[in-house]
């Protein structure tokens, strides 16, 4: 590291360059170019190596951040990538999609006054570079136990669980109903945030490590859980949360009203040239006025997807003000740059339709922020007489997700809480009420983040190792 302790003043925080707006408005390609070697080394050198690394504590997988920043600064990429994989199964993904402003970078000692170290981009850089150099995990010293674990769901939770198990001599066999691994990483998060090749490459790496994948295979339909329980030594469930939330608006089932996730899944399948399915037909926003209801990351993904599909006008309508939006500030900024319009402090009242039942707009009412609630969050209060109609040819509901029903699990003694989440406490190693079945990720904690799903998948793998006495 630099001898100059004030290097964070001399060298400001720099974010990687973005592609030109002309490209960003029409193409489904990652908008960030990534750091060069010299940029990464210089930005890593801004780390103070403060004695108490808050970044490390705030990171849900507790990455050894200052240590790999030092290795990057010294140009030791192969050492950095090994260290990075000790705590994270998909560091190149987290580096791209974690809301760093709320996690590691938000806790960086330099954040308030000088600009946080660009931790996420450097994490991404380490693995991207190592792969370019031909690096892959070395499992030659791992002794095979002969044990096999079935993993239901190839999302970040399932993949992280498989990663830890295979490194401990257990053969994970991962089942997923989709044609590619990644779960929401592939079929939810759009390619402008996370290139689809990243997960295709990971499938190759995991396969070479000894993980088996059975894709296009739905548990409860194509294969039965009873057979997996008989055939395997344990089962891990990382099935996510797939029930879209609705607002209960009049006419919300009208033609032209869509749920966010089927819209995003179908768009990604279209780009990846996978076959459309009945439940996710391709939805084309070309030449349409699109209104997206909601203010989280999913809403940002929908507005930016609509722009790229060629919508004439795209508006995000959110019931609080900009400062209270739950989505990442970075993504709101990106959406604005790409031409998305925002209506803040508005609440939908009903969907307006024509005589053929086709959506024509959303009836809205303006809101203002009231007194803070018990959690300190100010709730929106309706402004009387402020109704107006926002014209729309298509409306996307992006109000979030809750757990979907999984009767095939309940039949085997797995209990759910009153919100439909699988009961699998951390203190019990993420074991469910069926001792042979473990679970983690969104299906257990409710919709959350990639990095928390990875954390739970890894911890559940430790629980499985204890259960199997490995
Ligand atoms: P999932 O990723 O949902 O994976 C579950 C997998 O299980 C799926 O592949 C599914 O096909 C499979 N499956 C389910 N049931 C079965 C069955 N019966 N048989 C076989 N397979 C089955 N988080 C971030 O950190 N950053 C972001 O920028 C971000 N953006 C997001 C954007 C969108 C649009 C959405 C919806 C979410 C976003 N998230 C983001 C949240 C994040 O993607 C999830 O928290 C995370 O993917 C959860 O991981 P998981 O493994 O628990 O579930
Ligand atoms: Fe930050 Fe996420 Fe990486 Fe942790 S995993 S260091 S929170 S980007």
Automatic annotation (TrEMBL):
It is an enzyme of class 1 (oxidoreductase). Keywords: 4Fe-4S, Amino-acid biosynthesis, Glutamate biosynthesis, Iron, Iron-sulfur, Metal-binding, NADP, Oxidoreductase. Its EC number is 1.4.1.13. InterPro entries: DPD_II, FAD/NAD-bd_sf, FAD/NAD-binding_dom, GltD-like, Helical_ferredxn. Residues 148-457 form the FAD/NAD(P)-binding domain. It catalyses: 2 L-glutamate + NADP(+) = L-glutamine + 2-oxoglutarate + NADPH + H(+). Pathway: Amino-acid biosynthesis; L-glutamate biosynthesis via GLT pathway; L-glutamate from 2-oxoglutarate and L-glutamine (NADP(+) route): step 1/1; Nitrogen metabolism; Energy metabolism; nitrogen metabolism. Catalyzes the conversion of L-glutamine and 2-oxoglutarate into two molecules of L-glutamate. NCBIfam families: gltD_gamma_fam. This is Glutamate synthase [NADPH] small chain. Residues 25-134 form the Dihydroprymidine dehydrogenase domain. Its cofactor is [4Fe-4S] cluster. GO terms for biological process: glutamate biosynthetic process. One of its GO terms (molecular function) is metal ion binding. Signal peptide: none annotated. PANTHER family: GLUTAMATE SYNTHASE [NADPH] SMALL CHAIN (PTHR42783), GLUTAMATE SYNTHASE [NADPH] SMALL CHAIN-RELATED (PTHR42783:SF3).
């Amino acid at each position: 590291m630099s001898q100059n302790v004030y290097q964070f003043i001399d060298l400001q925080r720099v974010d990687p360059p973005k592609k030109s707006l002309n490209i960003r408005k029409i193409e489904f390609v990652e908008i960030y170019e990534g750091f060069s070697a010299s940029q990464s080394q210089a930005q890593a050198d801004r780390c103070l190596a403060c004695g108490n690394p808050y970044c490390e504590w705030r990171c849900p997988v507790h990455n050894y951040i200052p240590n790999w920043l030092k290795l990057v600064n010294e140009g030791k990429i192969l050492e950095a990538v090994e260290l990075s994989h000790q705590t994270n199964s998909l560091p190149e993904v987290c580096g791209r999609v974690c809301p760093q402003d709320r996690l590691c970078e938000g806790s960086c000692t330099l954040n308030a006054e000088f600009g946080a170290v660009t931790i996420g981009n450097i994490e991404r850089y380490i693995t991207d570079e190592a792969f370019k150099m031909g690096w892959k995990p070395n499992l030659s010293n791992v002794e095979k136990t002969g044990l096999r674990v079935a993993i239901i769901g190839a999302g970040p939770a399932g993949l992280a669980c498989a990663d830890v198990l295979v490194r401990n001599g257990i053969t994970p066999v991962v089942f997923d109903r989709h044609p590619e691994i990644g779960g929401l990483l592939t079929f939810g998060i759009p390619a402008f945030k996370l290139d689809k090749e990243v997960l295709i490459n990971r499938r190759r790496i995991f396969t070479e490590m000894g993980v088996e994948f059975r894709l296009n295979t739905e548990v409860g339909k194509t294969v039965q859980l009873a057979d997996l329980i008989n055939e395997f030594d344990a089962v891990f469930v990382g099935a996510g949360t797939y029930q879209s939330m609705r607002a209960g608006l009049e006419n919300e089932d009208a033609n032209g009203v869509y749920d966010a996730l089927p819209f995003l899944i179908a768009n990604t399948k279209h780009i990846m040239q996978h076959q459309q399915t009945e439940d996710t037909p391709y939805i084309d926003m070309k030449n349409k006025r699109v209104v997206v209801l909601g203010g989280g990351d999913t809403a940002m993904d929908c507005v930016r997807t609509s722009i790229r599909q060629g919508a004439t006008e795209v508006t995000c309508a959110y019931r609080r003000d900009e400062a209270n939006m739950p989505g990442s500030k970075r993504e709101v900024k990106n959406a604005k740059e790409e031409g998305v319009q925002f209506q803040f402090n508005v609440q939908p009242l009903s969907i307006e339709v024509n005589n053929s039942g086709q959506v024509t707009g959303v009836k809205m009412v303006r809101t203002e922020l009231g007194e803070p609630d018990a959690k300190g969050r100010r709730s929106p209060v309706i402004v009387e007489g402020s109704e107006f109609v926002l014209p729309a040819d298509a409306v996307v509901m992006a109000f979030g997700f809750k757990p979907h029903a999984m009767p095939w699990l309940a039949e085997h003694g797995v209990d759910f809480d009153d919100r439909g989440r699988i009961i699998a406490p951390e203190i019990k190693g993420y074991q469910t009420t069926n001792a042979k079945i473990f679970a983690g990720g969104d299906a257990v904690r409710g919709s959350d983040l990639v990095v928390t799903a990875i954390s739970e998948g890894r911890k559940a793998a430790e629980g499985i190792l204890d259960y199997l006495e490995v």
